[in-house]
Design goal:
The structure is a homodimer. Chain A is of the alpha/beta class and about 375 residues long. Chain A has 15 helices and 16 strands. The longest helix of chain A is centred in the C-terminal third of the chain and has 27 residues. Chains A and B meet through helix 3, helix 13 and helix 14 of A and helix 3, helix 13 and helix 14 of B.
Chain lengths: ~375, ~375
């Protein structure tokens, strides 16, 4: 069965939407934040811990799983859910972003992208068909179309040509797609040009994908530009399909893009910040390596309902981080992911009450404090 | 309250003992294996996971906690149990072994051991009194006397002098000991000389410690010598006190030393092996990095009741270890610790049935297979 997006309510004060995503692995309210499990594991966490922070969908990376352990190993294990022992919904990306950003030498042609395997130097070719074939085998709940990821800024002409290629690649992927229990999303490109974003949306909707993603963000653009890009896409996207903004996880960006009509977010930031000893809190990001926490026997965030905050102190976590004990990164990963999920819970409440803009103002005041007051 | 050892039964076929250790944090059957939580965390595991593998006491290292975060931080946190959120019993070592083995430059005098702090180069002096003072503040359930750790082999004269120093240090520590909720163990030294071991035991028992530890093993001696050293100590130790063999965790050594009357073991091996991708199983140690496990969708050990074996396959764990994902080390740590605890459970059963020697033969046949058949 394919996923189904049910629109419950549109906010009166902005373009925010409240919805439910019905999947083969449960129904989840949106807006939603997806933790990233790059290599079939959300770094440092167990599947039970992912559930405990009330995560819905998690994201796994096609590029990484293709290289290690290989999609056939996952297929023979019975698919990604069985392989990693996670019975919640999983979304796989197309591998495109990683090929464009991680591979040192690459050769982009109409066929696809040629690059060197970073682990053994082998020549590899990722095409729209290959990306879909791998994802069909991984058997995630949602697969992504293979698109061309360009940087920012890009000229209008370059962007226009790239959008056309992304559309041709989306069509090629859709044609070979072969998994009845998996949904396929199209990716909206077009840089910061409204007519290109609109064109891309219109062509993708003709192909009738199960959901749509806004791509080409988090590639060097400033926040205002990102919000504009998102607006250009959501303005034209169909209301009855879910909208996913890829790779965006800064708390303020989640708030601002929910306001612009985004339903799903993902980002590696909560687990990456955790490994560096940083915690996200209502009153901004804190660095637990700071000596002032040495004897701070209060939780990372007062009032937080996560396992980390209910059981451990800043002083203990600071000690673990100082000693490079992985339990420290684990506790902060739990907290940071839960923080972002709580943020989406609060946004859903604000949508229900038509107080999203009010929520944003309060969020900014709390998070940035006097700095932006 | 002090701990109390209750001897339930002595095996008929060897010197193995079945007992119960009554502590302020619960009662636990012996023989027992203690997981090591060097820096107030059993590497990669949560306190709940330590409970899940049915661990009793865990060990924390005085040397490491003295250097980071400092014993006063732990004291101000309300003691080690509160600091690390563990409500089971905790034993702290004296710091002696670490000072002798980790510090690069050290100066041993009658007063104690002078050495350089490995993190900031500061000059530090660890004395019997200081070790006890730190442990009193850490507020573990069991503290260890500060002893001189010598290598193997050592001459009779050197060993004899060292035993006398260890006895003087034990007396000095006991004199300043000041924590009514903590027990203090004496450490039996004496190398592989029976009369020195006997002398050490006799002098320590006169001082009346709450339990006794066999030291001076795992310092380069072969297995037969280790077993002899242990026999020389247990032969003379009082039956109504618990006996702890420090730093020994090779499965066969646990079996052989239970046979010689040891009640408690500790070792970093299960978590260290896990970080290198090794798993302990009834049929020997396996290396999950081996390519033959790539598509092995069976558990690490068939029949094992641990979280790792009940939920994950060798293929998945191999993938995690290959990708250096810490969840792999965590799963194998759970399994390896549970393996050693299961081993002690089986030994307790064998003692009840007076079949310890029979159990040893079967253990060797299974674990080493044809190699020792």
């Amino acid at each position: 069965m394919k996923i189904r997006y049910e629109l419950l309510k549109e906010a009166k004060d902005c373009n925010a939407r409240l919805g439910i995503l019905h999947t083969n692995h449960g129904d989840y309210e949106t807006p939603m934040f997806m933790p990233v499990g790059t290599q079939a594991t959300v770094k440092t966490l167990s599947p039970e811990e992912i559930k405990d922070v009330k995560a819905g969908i998690i994201l796994a990376n096609t590029y990484h799983l293709w290289l290690r352990p290989g999609e056939d190993v996952v297929l023979h294990a019975g698919g990604l859910h069985k392989f990693m022992n996670y019975d919640g919904p999983i979304l796989t990306d197309s591998g495109g972003f990683q090929v464009f950003s991680l591979a040192k030498r690459k050769d982009i042609t109409e066929e696809g992208v040629k690059f060197k395997n970073q682990y053994n130097g082998d020549s590899l070719l990722l095409t729209p068909e290959k990306s879909i074939e791998i994802q069909n085998k991984l058997d995630s709940d949602i697969a992504m179309s293979f698109d061309e990821c360009i940087g920012y800024p890009a000229t209008y002409d370059y962007c226009k040509q790239s959008v056309e290629r992304t559309l041709r690649w989306a069509r090629r992927g859709k044609e070979v797609f072969n998994n009845d229990n998996q949904s396929l999303f199209g990716i909206v490109q077009g840089g910061d040009y409204e007519d290109l974003r609109r064109h891309c949306v219109e062509e993708l909707t003709k192909m009738d994908f199960d959901g749509y993603s806004v791509g080409g963000t988090s590639v060097g653009e400033d926040k205002e530009t990102q919000y504009r890009m998102v607006s250009y896409a959501t303005k034209y996207l169909p209301k009855d399909k879910v909208r996913y903004l890829m790779g965006v996880g800064d708390p303020i960006d989640i708030v601002e893009n929910v306001i612009r009509g985004i339903d799903i977010f993902d980002c590696v930031s909560p687990t990456r910040l955790a490994r560096h000893g940083h915690a996200l809190t209502r009153y901004g990001k804190i660095n637990l390596k700071n000596s002032k926490y040495k004897e701070d026997f209060t939780p990372v965030e007062e009032g937080c309902d996560c396992y980390c905050c209910k059981n451990y102190t800043k002083a203990y976590i600071k000690h673990l981080i100082n000693c490079e004990e992985t339990f420290g990164a684990r506790l902060l990963s739990i907290h940071n992911i839960r923080y972002l999920i709580r943020l989406t819970e609060e946004l859903r409440k604000a949508i229900k009450e038509d107080k999203v803009l009010e929520y944003r103002d309060k969020f900014i005041k709390d998070y940035y404090g006097d700095k932006n007051a």
